[in-house]
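Hi C.,

You asked whether I'd gotten around to modeling the 297-residue construct. I have! Everything is below, sequence then structure, no commentary in between.
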Amino acid sequence: MTLSHAHPHSRKPARLVVLGAGGFLGRHLVTASAAASIETVAIGSRDIDLADGAAGARLAQRLRPRDVIVFLAALTPDKGRDAGTLMRNLAIGRAVCEATHAVEVGQLVYASSDAVYSFATTLISEETPAAPLDLYGAMHRTRELMLAAEARAPLALLRVTAVYGPDDTHNSYGPNRFLRQALKDRRISLFGNGEETRDHIYIGDAVDLILRVVLRGSTGLLNVATGKSPTFRAVAEMIAARAGGPIEIASSARQNPVTHRHFDTSNLLRAFPDARCRPLRDGLAATLADVRAEADA
């Protein structure tokens, strides 16, 4: 299953409803959709607790027929990796499904994660079987299946790789954490020697691809990635070179085996031939400039 478009050209939705609007990706998406003059409703956890048993009905009250829902709401691993967190995340998925039974929406776009893939396959495409290795990956895969089986809406599943950029709230291992460490501690800490390879996508490019899916009314499956996978050490060295002054890059005793992950982005380029993700060095420079501007302000 790959991506297909309902519209031959970009078409603004009647209204965009962003679930998880208070999160890293959600805040940037709301800003970008407003800049594109798309009527947008931002719903965060302070507006509706989507894990609550009555959340489906509350969400339905906020929806209109033909709304496009972008489903970003999730408790991320920094909030917990246990079974309780898993069950709250699944309750959020159930609420979204229930709301689509009450209101006929135009499209449902779910931001899943590349965590649904195992590390047994180093080159990943949309044809790669999902085989999650932890509860977070299992949660996303289960929500994908829930939405496909129970949501009454044209569905796009976007498996998003690691996102970096300004205003990140997760401090996950990689560019976001390395930037903070470099600026605060003048020291970047690596797992082992940072040999692993990963695909990192700049927040602006991830948001652009989500909006492209919305504007084309797309359905199906798409990996949201750049197709480039540098080592973590290479990422740390890029940041150290731009952070100003000496930055120590410290290795540590390895606790886990080295794993690698690369994405075949052929389907992404077929779906959106003019889409371009900025090189990592440019995204890091933009992020660093934003962080410094915020500090100066």
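If it helps when you're writing up: The chain is about 40% helix and 15% strand.

Thanks,
B.
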